[in-house]
Write a structure and sequence with these properties.
- The chain is mainly beta.
- The protein is built from 3 helices and 17 strands.
- The strands form 5 sheets. Strands 4, 5, 6, 10 and 11 form a 5-stranded antiparallel beta sheet that branches. A 5-stranded antiparallel beta sheet has the order 13-14-15-16-17, with helices on one face. The protein has a 3-stranded antiparallel beta sheet with strand order 1-3-7, with no helix packed on it.
- A hairpin with a 2-residue loop joins β8 and β9 (110-111).
- The longest helix has 14 residues, at 242-255.
- The chain is elongated.
- The relative contact order is 0.15.
Length: 260
Amino acid sequence: MAFKKLLASLGAGGASVETVLTEVNVVPGGVVQGEVRIQGGSVNQNIEGLSVGLQARVEVEGQDSEYKQDIEFTKMSLGGAFELQAGAVHAVPFGLEIPWETPVTTIDGQTLRGMNIGVTTELSIARAVDSTDLDPINVHPLPAQKAILDAFIQLGFRFKSADMERGHIRGTRQKLPFYQEIEFFPPQQYRGINQVELSFVADEHTMDVVLEMDKKPGLFSAGSDTFRSFQVGLNEFQGTDWAAYLNQWLSEVGSKRNWS
């Protein structure tokens, strides 16, 4: 028995954890529901704690390099300590709230490359290796976000890439330690712009829409980045022609080079 306890403390023959999600498709501000199932190992073990959270793999810019970092951006405890009997199954249901700022990972059924967000489960075991589990989820845009994304497509923009970057966007309601950028290639009529980067920063009422436009260099000027931002009510977006609104903004940026 002592040898079995030693193996369990090293992770062999100890308790295992599995999370089963009821629905992997969610939206910011929604709830992901599921059940954590703990399977007892070959010996009794003291469980110190169980928690679930959301984790994102984000880009971090160092002084000389870029690297990826896993950031857990919300966490919920699922109960206190208890003794798990050998071979027993312990099931704990949960409902984990999705923060309003959570990046979008899926648009119109298409997964955005590089968007890695999932539910992480942590089982803390006394005097043993902690057991963890990660289950991907699909975060779909809110209706207000979808309206902006659809407007870009309507104007002829093509999706380039998306990423999550550690840091803060100044002047927004951002609370998470990272943000998302969705990058588009412009159509021919916006020939003075290389690309447009779009970010959403939402709370339960309103979202900040941030555009960064990478301008091409002109005959007498260097290329530059132009930032624009505006606010959209999550329940007050239907009355605006967003394609026309965005086109006006993009044309204002381009008019400085007489290409609009």
